[in-house]
Design a protein that fits this description.
Layout (H helix, E strand, L loop, with lengths): L2 H15 L12 E7 L4 E10 L2 E10 L2 H14 L4 H15 L22 H19 L5 E2 L3 H12 L1
Parallel strand pairs: 1-4
Antiparallel strand pairs: 1-2, 2-3
Helix pairs in contact: 1-2, 2-4, 3-4, 4-5
């Protein structure tokens, strides 16, 4: 295993063991629930959005190391960002995990997920929190499932790359 892959693995394991921004955000004005039935991952995203900016963001849930680390790193990355910035980061993250992005494409610590594209079943684990974030930003009350037609295409895209 390359030194970079080992470092990436350590970062993911650290965020799994010690997730940042974990727990319910009291007074959140945005909230969504997501589920990956194939892996058993569950996540809830809570946000306080004011004047088009994510002032605070937290998550709770359980699941595999990739899912939990992705949610942890997502919340750390997006706190303080505008909604437009958050959507832009989401698009770059999506490209990264399906193999169409470049880990050096200004992804910072999120680049640790670049290897996920080699394991199409894990793409849904890495992207669950991000799809749940999108639902919360959109004000959707419907639970997010990685088996929803649009989200399932993410895994198919990864398998085709």
């Amino acid at each position: 295993m390359s030194d970079m892959r080992e470092l990436y693995q350590e970062v993911i394991l650290d965020h799994n063991r010690n997730p940042r921004n974990f727990g319910v955000l009291e007074g959140a004005n945005r909230h969504a629930v997501g589920h990956n039935p194939l892996c058993g991952d569950n996540v809830e995203v809570f946000m306080d959005v004011e004047d088009g900016r994510i002032h605070d963001i937290r998550f709770k849930g359980n699941g595999c190391a990739i899912s939990k680390a992705s949610a942890s790193m997502m919340t750390s990355e997006l706190k303080g960002k505008t909604i437009e910035e958050a959507r832009g980061i989401m698009a770059k993250f999506h490209d990264l995990v399906v193999g169409g992005g470049d880990e050096s494409d200004d992804m910072g610590k999120l680049a640790v997920f670049s290897g996920v594209c080699d394991y199409p079943a894990r793409v849904k684990c890495a992207s669950l929190a991000w799809h749940t974030l999108t639902a919360a930003l959109d004000g959707s009350q419907d639970p997010v499932s990685t088996e929803d037609k649009e989200i399932a295409l993410v895994g198919i895209e990864a398998a085709l790359v």
